[in-house]
Amino acid sequence: MDVITIIAYIGGIAMVFGYLPQAIHTMRTRNTDGIAMTTFLLMGVGSLAFAIQGGYACFNGDTSFMGIFVTNVITTISSVIISAIKIHNDFFKKKK
Question: What is the pTM of this model?
Fold first, then answer.
């Protein structure tokens, strides 16, 4: 395993462990007051784009992109969950 692959794994692990605790916390508490919607939407779009890139590369035989694909699928799902709860909370706060 070369240095670049190790760096990629470190980056992937950091991304997942950066998103996952926020997603779990948001699902448990439903508290989204301190979350910037624009940030999570843009990060979600970025993660989705990288997931598509990684999936496309893997589908075409370049398995070196598998880490990019898996990492960004997880972060995309986390972003979608957090954004959906945020949208739900903001919508119902305005109705009150």
Answer: 0.82
